[in-house]
C-alpha cells in the first residue's frame, strides 16, 4: 500500500505539535495550542510539502506530469518546481522567524495553493482531467490548507494575552 505524502506529513505535523506541547510548553492556553499547531503546519505542511513538491516536479517531472494529466517533457514543470521550493524554504524558515513572517508565508503559499486547486477543478470540469494528482486529496489540500492557515493565524493573533 502506497502512503500519500500529504497523509504522512499530516501525521508528522500532528505528532510534532503534540510532542512540542508536551515537552516544551508550560501552558495549554488557546494561544499556545494554536500557535504551536500553526508553527508545525507552516514548517511541515508548507515547508516539507513544498520541498517534496519541488523534488517531484524537478527530479520526477514526467511521472508527476502523467499523474496530473499533463503532457510529459513540459518545461513549465521546472517553474512549478521552483515555486514549490520557494514556499517550501519559506515554510521551513517559519521555525526561526515568527510574527509578520508567518503571515507573509501564509499569503504567498495560499495564493499558489488556492490557485492550483481552482486550476485542478477547472481542468476536471473543462477537460475531463480526472488524473490522480488532479482530483481528490490534492484538490482538497490545495483548497483547505489556506483556509486552515488563515483561521489558525487569526486565532493566534486574537488569543495573545
Explain the layout of strands and helices.
Layout (H helix, E strand, L loop, with lengths): L4 H20 L5 H30 L1 H8 L7 H18 L6 H28 L9 H23 L2
Overview of the structural elements:
By secondary structure, the chain is an all-alpha fold. The chain has one domain (45-159). It is built from 6 helices and no strands. The protein has helices spanning 5-24, 30-59, 61-68, 76-93, 100-127, 137-159.
Computed Rg: 17 Å
The total count of strands amounts to 0
The overall number of domains is 1
Number of helices: 6
Largest sheet: none
Q: How does the helix and strand content classify structurally?
A: mainly alpha
Which structural traits does this protein have?
about 160 residues, single chain, mainly alpha
Kindly summarize this structure in a few lines.
The protein is mainly alpha-helical and 161 residues long.
